[in-house]
Amino acid sequence: MQLRQQFRQEAVERRSRHSGDRRIRVLAYSLVLSRGAGPDDDWDTLQAEAERLGYVMGARLHDVAVPVGTTYLPGSRAGRGVYTSPGERPGWREAERLIRGGFADGVIAVDRHDISSDDGEYRTAIEELGERYQAFVHLVIPEESTVPT
Q: pLDDT per residue over 110-134, tens digit each?
């Protein structure tokens, strides 16, 4: 969570230094769990969050989750499967392409599982956007704390 927030803060500061009053532009991203499902509910949630933060929402991108049947994550939450990595999904690759081209400052998603349920893949996706493209990921539902209670 701290890494994600760090990249977001850097993007906001950079935008205010270089572009004055231009608002932050984000791409909406959703991972739907079946071909019959649609991202419409996610779009409404993401649009409301973008407006609340004063962001301009650009392209709406989504992928259909493709299960990886041979991978097992001990302790994974019920109802969350293991899916192809973000870099293998056409919608996520399009988001990276648009960010690389300067059309957006970041990606907004409902929760981290839209990007990846795997901690390593999730961190890699955030680092890739932040370090390589100076972009960020914003989540409507922040990551769960891993601190023992």
A: 999 999 989 999 999 999 999 999 9
Question: DSSP assignment of 64-78, as one string?
Answer: E--B-TT---TTPPT
* Overall pTM surpassing 0.90 (yes/no): no
Retrieve residue 72's tokens: 């097992």
- For residues 58 and 135, is the Cβ–Cβ distance under 8 A? no
* Per-residue model confidence as pLDDT tens digits over 33-44: 877 788 988 999
d(C-alpha 53, C-alpha 65), whole Å: 28
- Name the E strands within the chain: 25-32, 56-64, 106-109, 136-139
Q: Which two tokens stand for residue 48?
A: 């409301």
